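BUG: 3D viewer hangs when loading the predicted structure for this chain

Environment: internal workstation, default settings.
Expected: structure renders.
Actual: progress bar stalls at 90%.

Input used:
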Amino acid sequence: MTEVVQPDNKSTADPPDKKKGGVEAAMKTWGIPLAVLVFLLLFFMPTPEGMKPDAQKSIAIFTGALVLWITNPIPIYLTSIIAILLLPLTGAVKDQETAFGTLGFDVIWLMVSAFVLTSAIMKSNLGRRLALWMVTKFGRTPKMTLLVLVLINFILAFFVPSTTARATLMVPICLILLDIYKAIRGKGNLGKVMMLQGVQADAIATSGVMTATAGNIIAVGFINDQAGGHIGYMDWLLASMPTAIVVMLITFFIGLKIFPLKGEAAFHNTIDTLKDELKKLGDFSINEKKATVIFLITVILWATGDYQKGWFGFEISTEQTAVLAALLCLLPRVGLLTWKEANIKWELMIFAAGAYAVGNALDKSKGAEWIIKKVVNGLGLEHMSHVWVYVLVVFLSMYSHLIFTSKTVRVTILIPAFIALAKSLGMDPVALGLASAMTLTYTITLPPHSKVNTIYFSTGYFSVLDQVKYAVVTCFIGAVVISLSLFTWFKIIGIH
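Structure tokens produced before the viewer hung:
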């Protein structure tokens, strides 16, 4: 892979090392004692009226695990292993397969395949070539360049199913552009708005594609298993992508108002310099050709999923397509990866398995339903109109990243809870679950809220205040547009 030319000052795609703050250090110190205390109190307290004993045990395990996931004194996958062990040992589930079988869920296979595909696209260099080609072809002015970078983020979301991988790919390209445009940190807004829109485009594009992050896949698992939905790749795309495009376009122009360019940046010989960078990649490599064919096959199979039964008499599911793509990437001679090169995050697999185990135990034992009924009664939600409940849930979900920084933890906590809420109020759990899931990728307010934020922030082109200012507006617009979509677009496409 060609070396990326970095401008002066240290600025890489790797997040900087940072010291733990006082609050974070305290959470790590007290996380385990607090989790044990909460677990024991809930486990041994008298069983409340209307709650089954297995529901009480499930709630105790879930809450203890939740404290550990949030405070993070031990790795999240170890917490999941503890939860998986405790479920059958304590009698929270009668059949241990309910706990141990979650690692065999189809969504886990989808996640494994997504990591293989990510590794393939990074190794092949196809994404970098595509980005440079698009900028040299269409980026003739600063605004057009910014718009092209947004478009590249949206395109990459389809075949690079990792927000961090896309940020790692995009930031060096942005740095090359800013070096060419003579943009200086702390002077002018081009670098500021380019990096901030990179953060937002990564997040918003992720909300539009089911496989763009593991959190979306986990959310679909809960919606289909617990709400009785049948959400697949194209269902998610049809529901969420129009909303993502509308939010991105609105916030793109708002960003240019908040951080006006005012004719800055020198564009002399810019395109020629970028063309030289593209030329350094050389001819289209064998690996790039293989990656292109595999991704085209994958996208075509995903896009035609609803028609395959009528055409061929059988259907290749979203999960089967992803596994097929991973197989093609790994096959000798046909593919472009070895197993060692496939950067599969097994710790995330274990975490997801544990999250599903405790989430499903709560659902089957009716523990989640009991909790939600108490919350509904306590807040008086049963007296609100369903419209306001929908809106309240969407806004709560949107801003939940201010408390929980992990998308996967938020999905595990919120989606089952919102599904149970919808059931208790006689609302559509699929529509509510999907709308709330669409907000969970908007982790854009502060640098620590996601690895993507940290990667872009490490370039030094924007401040924390800049990010907060832009993110507050974007999150509000996102919640409004998703709420409106829930009452209009969802009904048109049959999700209601």
